[in-house]
C-alpha cells in the first residue's frame, strides 16, 4: 500500500500537517509506504517564486491587499470563468511536471494538505488521466473556496464552520469529516506540566507567557516582545523566534526589567513542552499553531492576524471563548494585563481550549487514508464529483 501526501511550502503549516499525518501513519499503520512531497519543488521557477515567496511577501508587506484577494476568491456560489480560468492556466503552466509525476508514483491514495495539489489532481481526474482516490485536509478553522476542489472522496475540516463553508461551496455533507487539524502525535502524549517547566528552566511561580512567531519567525516579533516586557506584573516570558536567527539575536540583546524572567529560543522541536508549561500563548493565529495550543489546553492571544485565514482563526477562538483577538500593538499590553488580573477568566479560557483540542486528528486522517488506499477500484462516488 502506497500513500502519497502532497503539500506546498507556502507558509509552514501545510508541511507540518503533512508531517503529522506521516507520523500517524508510521505509528498506526507501519506496513504502509508513505511519502511526503512539496509540489512546489517540481514547479517552474517563476511559479515557485510567485506562489511560495509571493504569499509570504504579500501577507507581510500588504496584509489588506492579501485579505482582499482572499475574500475575492472565496465568494460563495460564484465561478467566474475568467478568474478561475486564468488561475488554472497559470497553475498548469507552472506545474507542468505534475501530471507525469503523479502517474509515475502509481500510489494507492493521495492526501492533500494544501489546495494546490488537490486542484491539480482533481483536474486530472476530471480529464480521465488518473483515477487515484484523494482526500483533502484543511489546515485552518474555516475552509476557503479553493479547498473545495472535486472530484475528491473525502474532506477533513477543523470545525463546523469549516464544514458549512465547504457545503456552501458545493461539497456534499457525507464527504466531510469534522476531525480537527492534524498536529504531531507528540501533542497527544506530552509530559505533565511540572516536568515541562523543569525541562525548560521555568518555575511556574508566576504566569508563564509564551510568544511564538511560526517556524519562519514572521511578524512583529521585536515589537510584541517589547510590549510583553513592559507588563507590570512579574512574569516568566519565553519567546520562540523560529528560524529567524537575526530576530533571535536582537531579542537576546533587549534589556529585560528585573521583575521578569526570560528565555529567548530559536527553532525548537519542544514546542509541545513549552505549550504544556505556559499559561498563555501570544502569537499569530496560524492554523497549526492554534490547533497545537488548543490540544495543549492553552489560551491564545491572537495578535494582529493577517486578513484572511488568520483573522478567521482568531474569530474562531474568540467565539469559543478560548482566546483573545488583539488587532494592534497598542492594545496588547492592556489586554494581557487585564486578563492576568482575572485568573478565573484565564482558567475558564483554558477549560474551553481543552474542550476544543483534537490531539488525535492526524490519526483520524491516517485511518481514512488507509481505507481509501485499501478500497477496490478507485472510482469517485457521485457525491464526490463537482456539480
CATH structural architecture of the largest domain: 3-Layer(aba) Sandwich
Shape: globular
Q: CATH superfamily name of the largest domain?
A: Glycogen Phosphorylase B
Number of domains: 2
What's the main sheet like? 6 strands, parallel
- First-residue to last-residue Cα separation: 31 Å
Low-confidence stretches: 378-383
Strand order in the largest sheet: 2-1-3-4-5-6
- SSE series: EHEHHHHEHEEHEHEHEHEHEHEHEHHH
What does the model show?
The chain has about 375 residues and is of the alpha/beta class. The protein folds into 2 domains: about 1-185 and about 360-385, Glycogen Phosphorylase B (Rossmann fold); about 185-355, 3-Layer(aba) Sandwich (Rossmann fold). Helices cover about 45% and strands about 15% of the residues. It has 16 helices and 12 strands. It has helices at about 15-30, 45-60, 65-70, 80-95, 100-105, 115-125, 160-170, 195-200, 220-230, 245-255, 270-275, 285-295, 310-320, 330-340, 345-355, 360-375; strands at about 1-5, 35-40, 110, 135, 155, 175-180, 210, 235-240, 260-265, 280-285, 300-305, 325. Strand 10 (about 280-285), helix 12 (about 285-295) and strand 11 form a beta-alpha-beta unit. The protein is globular and about 65 Å long. The two termini are about 30 Å apart. Mean pLDDT is about 90; it is low at about 380-385.
Amino acid at each position: 500500500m502506497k500513500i502519497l501526501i502532497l503539500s506546498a511550502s507556502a507558509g509552514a503549516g501545510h508541511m507540518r500537517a503533512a508531517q503529522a499525518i506521516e507520523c500517524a501513519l508510521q505509528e498506526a499503520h507501519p506496513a504502509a509506504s508513505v511519502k511526503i512531497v512539496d509540489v512546489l519543488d517540481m514547479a517552474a521557477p517563476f511559479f515557485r517564486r510567485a506562489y511560495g515567496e509571493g504569499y509570504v511577501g504579500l501577507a507581510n508587506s500588504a496584509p489588506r491587499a492579501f485579505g482582499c484577494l482572499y475574500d475575492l476568491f472565496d465568494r460563495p456560489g460564484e465561478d467566474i470563468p475568467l478568474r478561475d480560468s486564468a488561475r488554472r492556466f497559470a497553475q498548469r503552466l507552472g506545474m507542468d511536471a505534475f501530471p507525469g509525476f503523479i502517474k509515475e508514483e502509481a500510489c494507492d491514495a493521495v492526501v492533500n494538505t494544501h489546495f494546490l495539489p488537490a486542484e491539480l489532481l482533481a483536474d486530472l481526474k476530471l480529464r480521465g488521466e488518473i483515477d487515484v482516490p484523494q482526500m483533502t485536509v484543511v489546515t485552518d478553522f474555516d475552509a476557503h473556496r479553493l479547498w473545495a476542489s472535486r472530484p475528491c472522496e473525502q474532506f477533513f475540516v477543523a470545525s463546523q464552520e469549516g464544514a458549512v463553508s465547504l457545503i456552501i461551496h458545493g461539497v456534499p455533507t457525507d464527504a466531510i469529516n469534522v476531525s480537527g487539524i492534524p498536529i504531531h502525535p507528540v501533542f497527544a502524549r506530552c509530559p505533565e506540566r511540572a516536568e515541562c517547566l523543569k525541562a525548560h528552566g521555568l518555575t511556574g511561580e508566576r504566569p508563564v507567557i509564551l510568544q511564538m512567531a511560526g517556524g519562519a519567525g514572521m511578524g512583529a516579533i521585536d515589537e510584541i516582545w517589547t510590549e510583553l516586557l513592559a507588563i507590570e506584573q512579574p512574569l516568566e516570558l519565553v519567546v520562540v523566534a523560529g528560524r529567524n536567527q537575526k530576530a533571535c539575536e536582537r531579542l537576546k540583546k533587549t534589556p529585560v526589567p528585573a521583575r521578569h524572567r526570560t528565555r529567548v529560543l530559536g527553532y525548537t522541536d519542544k514546542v509541545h513542552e513549552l505549550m504544556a508549561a505556559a499559561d498563555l500563548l501570544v502569537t499569530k493565529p496560524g492554523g497549526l499553531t492554534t490547533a497545537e495550543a488548543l490540544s495543549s489546553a492553552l489560551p491564545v492571544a491572537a495578535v494582529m492576524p493577517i486578513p484572511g485565514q488568520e483573522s478567521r482563526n482568531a474569530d474562531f477562538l474568540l467565539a469559543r471563548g478560548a482566546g483573545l483577538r488583539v488587532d494592534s500593538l497598542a492594545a496588547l499590553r492592556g489586554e494581557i494585563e487585564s486578563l492576568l488580573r482575572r485568573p478565573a477568566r484565564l482558567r475558564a479560557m483554558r477549560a474551553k481550549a481543552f474542550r476544543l483540542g483534537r490531539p488525535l486528528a492526524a490519526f483520524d486522517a491516517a485511518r481514512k487514508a488507509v481505507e481509501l488506499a485499501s478500497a477496490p477500484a478507485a472510482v469517485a462516488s457521485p457525491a464526490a464529483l463537482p456539480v
